[in-house]
Specification:
This protein is of the alpha/beta class and 282 residues long. The chain is built from 13 helices and 7 strands.
Length: 282
């Protein structure tokens, strides 16, 4: 076990010995002199919420200053407050209040991670890309990242797996057409079928549990054209009718007049109840 684990990102990423640290201060800066944070994981903002914030800024000003650090030349790089910066631009402001902090590149990354990755409004893809930046740019292992972020290692690994999906499916997750749980179900099918399966999930509005179950048999359910065999209205109606009679989930798989009926049970008691009920139907 790395002896540095448990002491945060500062223990995992070494400082440059001669890294210059600019002075700190409070003041205002022209918006044009503030560059985006290179470690900002969030790639998009809700336009309606951004417009609401812009209106609030017009009425009340920016109450909480942005945090920036001095970069090379005469510009500054944003550490925290990107929503406020974008809203200020919408509001037509020329300058914004700032706190200038003296930070190293390592500390800038740490602040960006704390400020952004743990925000609830990051979508799963933005979060995964932030973890990927930690792994690729700073050589951190999944265990290292998990320690820094106070998460399970499997959580980090599962998040990064989403980036292995086809670009079209990643876009579906980023636009919230698919949840992270649905995306992990998509990873269960063969790579060449993943885009089709993602579309299938959206078309039939599958829950995560249903998507996980369907992933196991999706390849077998394709017709000769590679398209999923449609489930008939009669099949769905029979499933609902049998589920009502048996008081359990029923799944019917049918193709050209042949197929099977699956009854679900979760406990021994449910199995015994189904057995008794089926015996009465004989």
């Amino acid at each position: 076990m790395n002896e540095h684990l448990g002491r945060g990102l500062s223990a995992l990423i070494p400082n440059g010995e001669n890294e210059q640290r600019p002075s700190a201060g409070i003041g205002t800066l022209p918006i044009g002199r503030i560059r985006p944070n290179r470690y900002q994981p969030r790639k998009k903002f809700d336009p309606d919420r951004l417009q609401e914030l812009a209106q609030s800024i017009l009425e009340n000003g920016i109450i909480q200053p942005l945090i920036v650090t001095k970069s090379e030349g005469s510009d500054y790089e944003l550490i925290a407050g990107e929503r406020r910066l974008e809203a200020a631009k919408l509001a037509g402001l020329d300058s914004v209040p700032v706190v200038i902090r003296s930070v190293s590149k390592k500390e800038q990354l740490q602040l960006a991670i704390i400020e952004n990755i743990q925000r609830e409004d990051l979508d799963p893809i933005e979060e995964a890309m932030a973890y990927q930046a930690l792994a690729e740019d700073f050589g951190l292992t999944h265990a290292d990242i998990a320690q820094v972020m106070a998460k399970e290692r499997t959580t980090i690994s599962n998040s990064l797996r989403l980036l292995k999906l086809p670009a079209e499916v990643i876009s579906m997750v980023a636009s919230e057409l698919l949840s992270a749980g649905h995306a992990r179900a998509v990873l269960m099918v063969e790579p060449e079928l993943q885009q089709a399966f993602a579309g299938f999930i959206i078309k039939y509005k599958l829950t995560v549990r249903q998507a996980e179950d369907k992933a196991k048999s999706f390849a077998q359910s394709l017709d000769k054209t590679g398209e999923p065999t449609p489930r008939t209205t009669l099949t769905r109606s029979l499933e609902l009718e049998l589920s009502g009679i048996l008081q359990t989930k029923v799944q019917i798989k049918e193709n050209k007049g042949r197929g099977k009926i699956t009854l679900e049970f979760k406990t021994q008691h449910e199995l015994d109840r189904l057995k008794t009920l089926l015996e009465k139907l004989r």
